[in-house]
């Protein structure tokens, strides 16, 4: 009888293990399928980057061969030196102009948007919600709807063919960035501001010493978004800039495809694309932690 009880207990104890092993086997198969799908998607997304790097390192002769080669026979590293030395492209000037516009735009957007968002969060006034909704509604306006009035305004101010039309509006805030920062400021406890007032802080000092230092992830998110949008902007520089010495990188890349070249220098164009992409990759990689924290913490409220 004891043997039968032991066999029954063994049978009972073995069944959960068998079920667990079976479920683990099913999960492993699912993970393998998901892993294979991720590999396929990754290869599909990385292939254009690989082809861009490959074309950038090809000679002009190999660049025109068909079918195209993935690995260059001769790595033409001198293409990057030719890109910066070319007097028609003036890539160094394009790079400098883009850096100036992007950096100043990030500073203006971050400061002005944070200041407006703080006001919408901390101050109580009649009609504040209506003003906030009106500001948010401007996000639904397409840029072509305001493009002509803005051009007439900046033209009358004498700002055409300068960086001012691209930089000055950033110091007036951005509706999307204001909304993003407002949601983050609303998650900060009021006790922090009360303790600051007890210590004699003014309202601006509360904003500068308490709200901004605690909003690092949200500010990093706003800075990254603004830098990417400004760095890749083509329509604004095309609209307001007319001299080659003021062109930014997107305009310069488009000009490289113009008819002044007998054959479009695709190898130099790919070199320029690599150099244009590097700052975005570097900034996103260095601020990735703050970027993800900003997205998560902004949605908590």
From TrEMBL:
It comes from the Bacteria. Keywords: Cell membrane, Membrane, Transmembrane, Transmembrane helix, Transport. Gene3D superfamilies: MetI-like. Pfam families: BPD_transp_1. InterPro entries: MetI-like, MetI-like_sf. The keyword 4Fe-4S does not apply. Its main location: membrane. This is Sugar ABC transporter permease.
């Amino acid at each position: 009888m004891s043997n039968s009880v032991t066999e029954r207990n063994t049978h009972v104890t073995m069944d959960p293990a068998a079920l667990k092993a079976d479920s683990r086997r099913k999960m492993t198969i699912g993970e393998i399928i998901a892993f294979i799908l991720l590999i396929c998607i990754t290869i599909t997304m990385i292939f254009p980057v690989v082809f861009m790097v490959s074309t950038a390192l090809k000679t002009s002769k190999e660049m025109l061969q068909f079918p195209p080669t993935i690995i260059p026979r001769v790595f033409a590293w001198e293409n990057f030196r030719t890109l910066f030395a070319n007097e028609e492209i003036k890539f160094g000037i394009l790079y400098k102009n883009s850096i100036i516009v992007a950096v100043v735009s990030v500073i203006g957007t971050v400061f002005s948007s944070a200041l407006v968002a703080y006001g919408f969060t901390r101050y109580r006034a009649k009609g504040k919600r209506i003003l906030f909704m009106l500001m948010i509604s401007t996000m639904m306006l397409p840029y072509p709807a305001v493009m002509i009035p803005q051009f007439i305004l900046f033209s009358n101010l004498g700002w055409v063919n300068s960086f001012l039309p691209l930089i000055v509006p950033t110091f007036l805030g951005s509706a999307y960035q204001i909304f993003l920062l407002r949601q983050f400021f609303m998650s900060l406890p009021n006790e922090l501001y009360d303790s600051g007032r007890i210590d004699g802080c003014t309202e601006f000092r509360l904003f500068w010493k308490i709200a901004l230092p605690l909003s690092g992830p949200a500010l990093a998110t706003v800075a990254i978004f603004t830098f990417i949008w400004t760095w890749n902007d083509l329509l604004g520089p095309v609209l307001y800039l007319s001299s080659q010495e003021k062109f930014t990188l997107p305009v310069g890349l488009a000009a490289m495809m113009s008819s002044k070249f007998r054959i479009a220098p695709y190898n130099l164009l790919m070199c320029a694309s690599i150099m244009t992409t590097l700052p975005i990759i570097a900034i996103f990689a260095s601020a990735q932690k703050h970027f993800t924290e900003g997205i998560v913490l902004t949605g908590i409220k």
